[in-house]
Write a sequence for this structure.
């Protein structure tokens, strides 16, 4: 083990086996992207909680609960997808492979579209 190439910790070796250390700027950019996805996830979680807590007069009870659960579940999926994406990107950088496509992008797009459609339907038919 040399001073310029210190040994990685046991967790790093377990989660990201093999490969070469990428430029720290790329690893830090990957972390910032992960945190942006986590913020998006928290927004969906907060939206679901707010819908359930404060929109009881605006939406019928079963629909409000379904939309709230949908938003919270979408937030959970985005959070899990962010973690998987971080590991995939980090591994790709370490092994010199192309970066994987972000699966969370269509998930968020479809989730927002579905939620907006449900709200439009409620507004149009109430």
């Amino acid at each position: 083990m040399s001073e310029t190439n210190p040994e990685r910790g046991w967790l790093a070796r377990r989660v990201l086996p093999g490969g070469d250390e990428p430029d720290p700027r790329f690893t830090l950019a990957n972390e910032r992207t992960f945190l942006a996805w986590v913020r998006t996830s928290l927004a969906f979680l907060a939206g679901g909680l707010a819908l359930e807590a404060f929109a009881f007069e605006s939406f019928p009870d079963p629909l409000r609960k379904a939309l709230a659960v949908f938003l919270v579940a979408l937030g959970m999926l985005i959070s899990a997808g962010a973690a998987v994406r971080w590991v995939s990107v980090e591994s790709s950088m370490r092994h010199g492979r192309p970066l994987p496509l972000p699966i969370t992008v269509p998930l968020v797009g479809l989730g927002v579209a579905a939620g907006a459609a449900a709200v439009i339907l409620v507004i149009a038919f109430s």
Notes: The longest helix spans residues 61-95.
